[in-house]
Amino acid sequence: QRLRSRGKILQLKQTHYEPKPEGYVPLPLSLMSSGPIRRMVRSETHEGNQLLDHVDWSAYLCDVPGVRWHPCGGWRVQFHRCSWEHDYYVRCSCFFRID
User: Fold this and answer.
1) Residue 60's closest CA among 94, 27, 98?
2) For the chain, first and last CA: distance in Å?
3) Helix axes 35-43, 46-53, angle to 10 degrees
4) pLDDT band at 22 (very low <50, low <70, confident <90, very high)
5) How far is residue 14's CA from residue 98's CA, in Å, rounded to a whole number?
């Protein structure tokens, strides 16, 4: 109730549901972790939309689970397995580049 008295917004504005177009593929989450790319995608300006049209997004997609593009210009592989019964714990995170 204190938040309401201060005039802060507690819930997001509700909008109508718009279905995704046929063949829609979302951008990888790893791309949105890069500040400059995230700002360009979310700005929705005319200049930003023109720049986004010239980017080949298929170069940043990977169909292997646990592999994502990293803003350093390489790929990040994350692997995590554990077995409590066998006292087996593995966490691996590595970066690699392809020239």
Assistant:
1) 27
2) 57
3) 120
4) very high
5) 44
Q: Tell me, what amino acid is at 17?
A: Y
Asked if 90 contacts 80 with a C-beta cutoff of 8 angstroms, the reply is yes
The C-alpha atoms of residue 84 and residue 81 are separated, in whole angstroms, by 10
Judging by DSSP bridges, how do beta strands 67-69 and 75-83 pair with one another? antiparallel
Whole-number mean pLDDT of the chain?
81
Strands (E), the chain: 67-69, 75-83, 88-96
Q: Which two tokens stand for residue 88?
A: 């087996």
- What is the Cα–Cα distance from 40 to 31, expressed in whole angstroms? 11
